[in-house]
Amino acid sequence: MRPSAFLRHAVAAGGPITVSVKPKSNTTQKAKGSASRPPVPQPLVKTITKPIEIGSFCEMGRGVGRLANGRIVFVDGTMPGDVVNVNVKKSTGTYIEAQVRDFVSKSKNRIDPPCQHADKCSGCSLQFVPYEQQLDLKYKSITSRLRRALDDPSLPIDPIVGSPRTQGFRNKVEFSFSPDADGTPRAGFIDRDASGVVDIENCLLSVPLVNDILKYVKEKALEVDMDFGGQIRRLTIKTATKSITPEERAYADSDIMTDNATAIGDTSTEIMVIVVFRFVDKKARKLMEMVGNRFMGKAPKVTEDRMAREQRLARERSEADRKKQGGFWADWETATKQNSGRISHTRPVDPSQPRVTSLYMSTNKNTGRVVPELTQHELYRGDAHIVQQMEHLTFQIFPASFFQPNPEQAVVIYRLAREMAQLTGSENVYDLYTGTGTIGLFLAPYARKVVGVDYVPESIESAKVNARDNNISNAQFYAGDMSKTLNKRFIRKHGVPDVVVADPPRQGMAPEVVKTIRECAPQRIVYVSCDGATLARDLKMLCAPADVSSVAAAPARNVDLDSIPTEAEALDRANRAEAEDAAPLVQAQYRVKRVVPVDQFPHSAHYETVVLLERVDAENK
Q1: pTM for the model
Q2: Which of 258, 358, 411, 535 is the most exposed place for a label (fewest CB within 10 A)?
Q3: Which one, of 221, 233, 200, 532, lies nearest residue 372 by Cα?
Q4: Is 520 annotated as catalytic?
């Protein structure tokens, strides 16, 4: 990152921090009307002998102090009001990065972190900051970014929506396995310096059973003399919650079950365990067998009555799945048949208690970091997926599926997207970066048609299954690189969108995607962002001025379904329109109408933002 870009992360109480440098002579003075100059570089600093007072946060959640000459110092693990002695980690001509050597005094607002690993683990960097102050930091961050990017000091931004839970909220955790410098095996999260792994005994982010699983996997991996990092690489644990069905409640209440003293709750939490190896051998299979037996149980001896009930419930739950053919489902059925001898159908006494229902043995042969796209998943025991319920919808989650990490806040985001879309039932909606189809399926009952696109084929397969399982017939999903898939031919085939919803990864949208959206000229765009910097960049592109003729040139909307061409007709038209495709189209301009920050990640500097943009019509320009 360039120094000038890095400095823009600094946020003071009333706005961004800037550096003022007194010119050495009149020759360096800025001429009237000339472009602003970057700060004059200063000598590098190797040591700081005097204490630093932290005056504000930067947008990345680090404390910001200043030297006597005004140079900015970023200090990890500090907050406004702290006074610290520091060691310099990095020095440039315009800023310094440092770490705390000791505290001279601590802020009166500082609290004791609830987690025993908070001083070393990189997972939750702001646990020492009261939650209300965390929310204030995030609100100032997005406000500063967007108002600066759009050059609009009065841009209205709604209050941030805080998370109802700051512990036990996360539905996915990933633990790494690696030896430290002296060869001691470690299992947990990456440390703050990204130099090793912190052994985790009790993570507060997810359900308590997650800690039991990590402890057991580490213990048994050592027992079978497995190489940490060299063979066992990662443990991913996903959770999903749904309402308990009448059949499950009746089963738990029946006399088939014994020791049924616990009251049955209203929801069920399913857990998927994914153990990632570099290679699989007898040690790996032995470890998987022990994990499966410990958390899923051995296949029990059952009476004929119980077996009949189990078979009936299994038929009711998976009849549709057994009929699926081809692609992902063919692979899933093959894996299920191959592992049928290891699949256990035992069920707990209380289905409302979290339980492991899915166990995967996965491999990633990459010699560097574990790249998810290069991981191959093999179902070892249990169900191929877990099920998350949101409102009246259910979503199947597989190992490669992306799902928002805080389900309670995800519902808030999806409801906001639905509200901002302002659907009347006649709109054609594009759901870009759809993942497993969550936002698109939330919108489908209120739209004429939903077209979802994502670059992960497994996610698109899940989206299709989710649409079918929820009896939604007006949603279609397609896999492909967004920049290449979203083209004029695709738009001709599926109709011009009235509303575009985009939920891209942290990298944001490629310029080609932004350009295509502006050429489509939908009436509204709903942008769901997990990164304030790329959101600001993309909004600036979407709101850039355009010709008044852009709106007049926008294609007609609300086309009847019967008038949408068949695939053959669309391809024929596309082939005859190659010359037209080569011609550039005018681009519509948009204006931000509403911004709502949502905190999905308590104790970190990250947050989500939902933005409504409306097309600037010719008569309103």
Answers
A1: 0.78
A2: 258
A3: 233
A4: no
